[in-house]
Amino acid sequence: MRKRKDTNLAEGEITGHAHRCAGTNVIVYDTDGDRMLEAPNGCDVTHEEHKTIEIPPGEYDAVISKEYDPFEEAAREVLD
Amino acid sequence: MITKLTKEQESQIPNFLKKWINYASEPMDEAKAVAVMKQMYREMDLKEPLVIIADSPWSACLMSVLLQTGNKKQLDSQLHSQLRSQLDSQLRSQLDSQLSLQLYSQIDSQLDSQLRSQLYSQLHSQLYSQLRSQLSSQLDSQLDSQLDLQLSSQLRSQLDSQLDSQLKTTRPYVNVYWAGCAGLYNFGQYAGVKFDSKKLNLFLNYNRYISSAVVFDGICFINRKPVKIHWKDNKLHRDMGKSVEYADGWGLYSLNGVAVPEWLVMIKDTDLDPAKLMTIKNAEVRREFVRKVGIERIVAKLDTCQIDRKNGELFSGETVPMYELLEFDGGKKYLKMINASLSTPDNFVYHIEGVGRNCTSVEGALLYRLNGDSNKYSFSKEGSDWWIHGDVNIVPRQQTVLKYKPQKIA
Question: What ipTM did this prediction achieve?
């Protein structure tokens, strides 16, 4: 696990938009292909195109949604 | 310490926002641009560069690449060695550590924390959102793809391996990011914050006159501002034309702030084939395709069969189908979802994502979004709360049994 300099749970591929966490003592870690959020006091998750949501105190995994690619006939992460 | 703004000062915030957004497309004052670029080099302890002005970031890239490739043998050896050393990171560090951070610390020490936070949100965040997210990232992405796809393939055969690697690093440093900070510092100055005036002036002038630069030791390429930028609701947007237009014809295509391929903008909505939806891999580009073509036309044209539906409340209690599991295109299954954040009571915005062929219900499709081909997560009434924020699912660590419905969707 590696502590990230930012508090982004994910960034868009071409839009530059990001799901960012804002709160006291919030840390986001890079884990094995995913990211982990440590929010001892809870946090707000913001994004340019989504409403802000409040997350209660705790530790969380940020799981990027998968979608089925009918051409590859396999799951892949949703790209934005 | 400044603890409160006067009413007059408060009323000026929208004007500062407007001013810095307008700077993004004002005609370039070439003499001032050249002077500030030279000053920036001097501040980095480098000798004054030869400043070459192009009509667009793309032309600036082309010029620098052609200088590195076209006349390699004839190129003056000193100039050639200078072109080997690109100073992108040095310029970035100068703007960040030497200027912006020091200016911010002056804001920090002279503005009450509550006021600082208010101004940060009203000025920096709004400018950042509109200019940086919309304009800067799209310029970067467009230039990257054109440099990789077009220039590389066209010129690779003419390049030796060393020049090929140089081509890969020939990116302009797109400067719009710092305009958000510049707007904040500029207002801070107006509100009475005492800055190191030399640093402030350099930072403000650089952000006002230079929009991007390809910087080398001894020579740099800058470009004129766009001749027109089309905004809609603070997002880059133009249907049937470029959203950002430069004098040489180069530009960006965007719909509702999303960088999209030229065809999606330039083909009339009624001439777009709904079946093309399935060839678009990027979820936001796909959403703009759905928005332009219209979900009804897509559903009708693709002979869709609805397998399952889950209603939910949106807009003060109105019940609408939030999720629909659809089957079309030869048994392929797709989850149609309302974007709860972008939709308005008059205009619903939809996402369509492929889900596994075995999905038979909306719950199964939501589980597929979490798991893909794995079986890590499952749903139960007694499961843990979880959240959906766009394409990110936020799940309590080490919990794999989740409630059927997310706690919140945005």
Answer: 0.94
